[in-house]
Each structure stands twice: as structure tokens, then as C-alpha cells.
Amino acid sequence: MERDATILVTGGTGLVGSAIVRILRAKGYSNVLAPARGMLDLMNVQAVREYFAAQRPAYAVLAAARVGGIAANMAHPAEFLHQNIVMQENVMWAAHQQGVRKLMFLGSNCIYPRECPQPMREEYIMTGPVEPTNEAYAIAKIAGVKLAEKIYEQYGTPFISCLPCNIYGDRDHFETERGHVIPGMLRRMHDAKRSGAPEFVIWGTGTPRREFMHADDLAEGVEFLMRVYTENRFVNIGSGEDITVGELAALIKEIVGYKGKLVFDTSKPDGMPRKLLEVSRIRALGWAPRVSLRDGIERVYRWFLENQ
Ligand code: GDP
User: Fold this and answer.
1) Closest C-alpha to ligand 1, atom 4
2) How do the domains of the chain map onto residue ranges?
3) How much is the pTM?
4) 268 lines ligand 1 (CB under 6 A)
5) Looking at the chain, which terminus has fewer C-beta neighbours within 10 angstroms, N or C?
């Protein structure tokens, strides 16, 4: 990837996309395009085609998606399926037609089967039904991974995908109903501390295990893969370590400085019991993340305090 090539990052204002834009620019890529939604509506196929024809990006990273935590996925499954399919289809096909030389599609760890053997190897995709709480998102992401794969297979252009674990960082959705567990808990625990609430309610049993990685690490990994990876096989990208939701709550409690008691609301869904990625393929290529979970959450909490 040449430093002066035009690189389009969709979703460049979101959690993952903004980190990718920042890291690319920091590494000296001088022509990174990151149109905000007001400038380019990815749901509008005509607008997407015209944008590609006018800007002629050589490379593209697809980080735009309708995303959310377990509550948002359960509340809006139709929109999660529809919007993700349409956005990825519009962008990938326009990229293909306009001669983009290499493309990275961001998938998700939730596309693996609910009962997947752990850790989850790349070849376990589509060997069983996905977790019902995020079925719509997973089906859309499977379609995206497969579209990239088929374009590569049929036309020989390296359209590749990586499947990240649960990502957290700045610019996340901190609203309770929309957010994933780290921003959601940070916000709720912060509020509990400020209001002096004696108890903090963890959704579910606290036993599900999740693997987390900071968005800056994902961005570094995406830049790395865009430079070196050329195989037509998607690749897992994660920290290779997971913790339980209960352990995560205890860590967030320490970071926020909340003094109350942690309790569980088992009427709330747990989602997938475990989704640990098997990351030996990307490790063998010579890449590993750098931000520890504690440091990363401390950074996000500071960002939250300064920006909310
Ligand atoms: P998932 O990885 O797709 O299941 O999405 P989430 O990040 O939203 O949730 C991960 C796990 O954390 C689930 O088992 C949730 O029930 C649990 N959890 C506990 N407290 C919270 C919270 O405040 N917000 C969210 N989003 N999840 C929570």
C-alpha cells in the first residue's frame, strides 16, 4: 500500500473506523478519505457509485456497520440485517467495479456457531447455527465475508476479511441500551458511583466469557494485513485471551472507583457462552496486539470523562 495512494475508510467516524483513519495517517498515508454520513450515505447505491467514480480510491477498508450490544441487536434485528447487507453490498460492489486494488472487510467473531469449539478456528465458520441474540448481524457479516471471498475467487482481486473479537475504545456508544458491555458498564458504573447506588446490576449470570481488544490494536492489525496479507482466507484478529463478564465488572469497578456491591440480573440474556478466537494464523504472520485490557479500559474511561 503506497503512502500516497487514495485509501477509503468507510465508517471513519465510528469506534473502529476512526482508529483506522488515525493510525493510517500516523503511519504517513497522506490520502485517507473518511466521508462522514452527511457527505456519503452508504445506503444510497447511486451516491456510493458516484463517490467511487469521483474519488477513485486504490484501497478500501470497510468499517461502516450498524452495530450495537446485546440489547440493541435484540431490539432491532431487521435493521441490523437490512442496513448491514445494503451498506456492505453497495460499497464492495462499487469498489469492485471501480477497480479498487485491495479491500478489507471487517467481519465479527459472532459469525461462528453458538456451540463452536473453543478457541474458534477460521475453518469453523458455518459449521452450526449462530447465537440467536445476534443472528441478524451475524448473517449480514457472513454475507459480507463471503462476497469478498467470491470476488477474490472469481476476479482475482484481493478482497479480504478479518474477524475481530469484541472491540472497545474511544468514540464508542456509551448509551445503556445501545452499547456493548465495556462502554455500557463504564457508563452505568460511573452513574452508580455518582449517585452513591449501593448495588450495581450486571446483566445475565456473569459467566459468559469475552475476548476484548482495543480499537487502536485492531487498526494496527488492519494496516498490517493490508500490507502483507494476500491469501483468500479470512483471518481472526484478537488478543487470544478472554475473561468472564463478572471478572470484567470487577475490573471496571476498580477503574471507576465504585464502592458498592456487584449483583446479577439473571433474567437478562447472556448471549454466546464463549467466543474466543484462535489467533495463531495472524500471530504466525508476525502480528500481535499491544494494549493490555486494564490500560485500555483506563484510557477509555479517561476519554469518557473528558468527552461526555
Ligand atoms: P455480545 O458479546 O454480543 O454478547 O454483546 P455485549 O458486549 O453487549 O454483551 C456481552 C455480555 O455482557 C453479555 O453476556 C451481556 O449480558 C453482559 N453484560 C453485563 N452487563 C452489561 C451491560 O451493562 N451492557 C451490555 N451490553 N452487556 C452487559
Assistant:
1) 271
2) 6-172+211-238+274-292
3) 0.97
4) yes
5) C
